[in-house]
């Protein structure tokens, strides 16, 4: 294996780690609590677009449960980043605009992480890497 192949392998391992760690972290900290405690979360969720708490919570669950699972698997990973980034931007800019960078650091770090996956893609160590054509890059 030459140096170029080692570099590519290291990049793919790095993207795998980023996808899996970030996706599972978002799922564990935000997604599963919303899914498992749906009724309680209905009382707590902010509704900045006035869609109603039920629809707002369902959209948040989509972004914080289904999308991270797709990213972890590397299937439609770039596309799956978009709802997550939207929810993060809404939370940071509309729901909690009073937060300092220190108070919102978790959200900002997730924004950086999923923006990186959006830009770089899932890498070759992804189930999506075996999909045909446009699906591979979505």
TrEMBL record:
<keyword id="KW-1003">Cell membrane</keyword>
<dbReference type="InterPro" id="IPR032808">
    <property type="entry name" value="DoxX"/>
</dbReference>
<feature type="transmembrane region" description="Helical">
    <location>
        <begin position="105"/>
        <end position="127"/>
    </location>
</feature>
<feature type="transmembrane region" description="Helical">
    <location>
        <begin position="12"/>
        <end position="31"/>
    </location>
</feature>
<feature type="transmembrane region" description="Helical">
    <location>
        <begin position="51"/>
        <end position="72"/>
    </location>
</feature>
<comment type="similarity">
    <text>Belongs to the DoxX family.</text>
</comment>
<keyword id="KW-0472">Membrane</keyword>
<dbReference type="Pfam" id="PF07681">
    <property type="entry name" value="DoxX"/>
</dbReference>
<dbReference type="InterPro" id="IPR051907">
    <property type="entry name" value="DoxX-like_oxidoreductase"/>
</dbReference>
<feature type="transmembrane region" description="Helical">
    <location>
        <begin position="79"/>
        <end position="99"/>
    </location>
</feature>
<keyword id="KW-0812">Transmembrane</keyword>
<protein>
    <submittedName>
        <fullName>DoxX family protein</fullName>
    </submittedName>
</protein>
<keyword id="KW-1133">Transmembrane helix</keyword>
